[in-house]
Amino acid sequence: MKLPPTSIGESASRRREVLRVLRTSPDPMSIVAIADVLGVHPNTVRFHLDSLVGDGQVEHVELDRKGPGRPPLMFRAVRQMDRGGTRHYRLLAEILAVAFAGERDASTKALAAGRAWGQKLDSSLEPVLTDPASADDAIDHLVNMLDELGFAPERRAADGEQQVGLRHCPFLELAENRTTVVCPVHLGLMQGAMEAWGAPVAVDRLDAFVEPDLCVAHLALQDAVK
């Protein structure tokens, strides 16, 4: 069934109206009843209901059958927040970054937050890290984890030191303006993950933007940093 020609904006508006009617009704409603409230053709309501049911915002309701004949299809709004709307996680990240930056010892607190997150990460990476893990296995595991998180990592070595280069920052715009908050979170994340794995290697420090397209995490054997 096709909806009569209309603009995308009009179609979205009509769909919201159908959903509004169902949300304000204490009881399930039939297609005809919804159409009567809105003053539109039942086929228009049926079209939008198909979309709303597909999106999980509306559900069918089975009524007890009374008397002969098939009971009309009844619908009600699913009682939940609209999961089809846009997300603004960057705004949330900016709010949290500003809140951290405004506190005393912002970098220390951001580091602790990142470490706590890293310790709780339940990685499903393969191969599973054995206990105790070798330094090489732990570094490879760290690189794999950072890759899954979107950091585009690369294992490096310089002057006998093991490093992990990060070629992408999932929070680039925030990191450029809130380096003292975002970068310690990333450092803490790596440190916390290594601690949770019982790795014999630690993430000593993170140098941000050593090149326009590179941050570098410096690693050290744990005996060397005690």
In short:
Pfam families: HTH_20. The protein has 226 residues and is an alpha+beta fold.
Question: What does this 3D model show about the protein?
Answer:
With 226 residues, this protein is of the alpha+beta class. It has 2 domains: 6-77, Winged helix-like DNA-binding domain superfamily/Winged helix DNA-binding domain (Arc Repressor Mutant, subunit A), CATH 1.10.10; 89-221, Trafficking protein particle complex subunit 3 (Muramoyl-pentapeptide Carboxypeptidase, domain 2, 2-Layer Sandwich), CATH 3.30.1380.20. 48% of the residues lie in helices and 18% in strands. It contains 9 helices and 7 strands; from the N terminus they run αβααββαααββααββα. It has helices at residues 8-24, 31-38, 42-54, 89-101, 106-120, 135-148, 172-177, 179-197, 222-225, and strands spanning 29-30, 58-61, 74-77, 153-158, 161-166, 201-211, 214-221. The strands form 2 sheets. A 4-stranded antiparallel beta sheet has the order 4-5-7-6. Strand 6 and strand 7 (214-221) form a beta hairpin. Helix 1 (8-24) packs across helix 3. It is elongated. Mean pLDDT is 86; it is low at 1-5.
CATH superfamily of the largest domain: Trafficking protein particle complex subunit 3
Q: In total, how many domains does the architecture comprise?
A: 2
* Average pLDDT figure: 86
Q: State the secondary-structure class.
A: alpha+beta
Number of strands: 7
| Low-pLDDT runs | 1-5
Shape: elongated
Q: Indicate the CATH topology of the largest domain.
A: Muramoyl-pentapeptide Carboxypeptidase, domain 2
Most strands sheet? 4 strands, antiparallel
The CATH architecture designation of the largest domain is: 2-Layer Sandwich
Strand arrangement, major sheet: 4-5-7-6
- Residue share in helix: 40-55%
Radius of gyration, CA atoms, in whole angstroms: 27 Å
Q: What is the rounded distance between the termini?
A: 71 Å
